[in-house]
Design brief:
- By secondary structure, the protein is mainly α.
- It is about 55% helix and about 0% strand.
- It is globular, with a radius of gyration of 20 Å.
- The chain starts with a helix and ends in a 13-residue tail after the last helix.
C-alpha cells in the first residue's frame, strides 16, 4: 500500500515538470559523433555487430534506453551479488544460502511474487514517464528538463554511468559464469586463476 502511494506521488509530481522540445534528426551520423553521450574512449562508437546500421533516431534512442536499463540492473545485481555472498540477507532471517544462485532457488514463492510485482511496478512507472513530451532515453527522474547535454559536467556524469553499466554487465556475467563452473561465488571467486 505504501509503495503504491509513493509511486502515485512520483507519477503526479512528474506532471509539474517543465517540458522542452527537441528537434528530431533522422541520421545515424548524429549518434557517431564524439559529443554524443556514450561515445567514449577508447572504443568510441562501439557497434561491432553493426546493429545500428540504417537505424533511425527512434530506434537508436530505444537501443540507448535498453543499454542504460540493462546497465543499471547489472550494477544493482553486482552490488546484490556481493552483499548476498557476504552474508547480508535483508529478508527471510538470513536463512537462504550465501551462494546467490542457490539463494535464488531457495527463495520462497512469495519472494518471487514480490520481486515480479516490484519489477512490474517500476516498468509501468517508467512507461508512464516516457509519455511526457521532451523525454530523453533513460531519464526517469526528469533531469533533462533542467540540464541539457551542453553542460560538460552533466555529459561527464552520463558517460560515467554508461561506462559503469557496461562494465557491470560484463562483471555480473563473469560472476555467474564463475559460480556455475567453479562453485566459487564470494570475494575469493577468482582464486582458481592464481593457483
Amino acid at each position: 500500500m505504501k509503495s503504491a502511494i509513493v509511486a502515485s506521488l512520483v507519477a503526479s509530481a512528474a506532471a509539474f515538470a517543465p517540458t522542452k522540445t527537441v528537434p528530431a534528426s533522422t541520421q545515424l551520423s548524429a549518434w557517431i559523433e564524439d559529443t554524443v553521450v556514450g561515445v567514449t574512449p577508447p572504443a568510441g562508437f562501439f557497434d561491432p555487430l553493426g546493429l545500428s546500421k540504417g537505424k533511425d533516431d527512434v530506434t537508436m534512442k530505444y537501443y540507448r534506453e535498453a543499454e542504460l536499463k540493462h546497465g543499471r540492473v547489472a550494477m544493482a545485481a553486482c552490488l546484490g551479488w556481493y552483499l548476498n555472498a557476504g552474508g547480508v540477507h535483508p529478508a527471510f532471517n538470513s536463512a537462504l544460502s550465501n551462494d546467490p544462485l542457490k539463494a535464488m532457488v531457495e527463495l520462497p514463492a512469495v519472494g518471487w511474487v514480490q520481486f515480479v510485482l516490484g519489477c512490474g511496478a517500476i516498468e509501468w512507472l517508467g512507461q508512464q514517464i516516457k509519455e511526457r513530451p521532451g523525454y530523453e532515453p533513460g531519464d526517469l527522474l526528469g533531469a533533462a528538463y533542467w540540464v541539457d547535454n551542453s553542460d560538460e559536467g552533466w555529459v561527464s556524469y552520463q558517460n560515467k554511468e554508461m561506462n559503469n553499466g557496461r562494465l557491470a554487465m560484463l562483471a555480473i556475467t563473469g560472476m555467474i559464469y564463475q559460480d556455475v563452473f567453479t562453485g566459487e561465488y564470494g570475494d575469493m571467486m577468482y582464486r582458481q586463476l592464481v593457483r
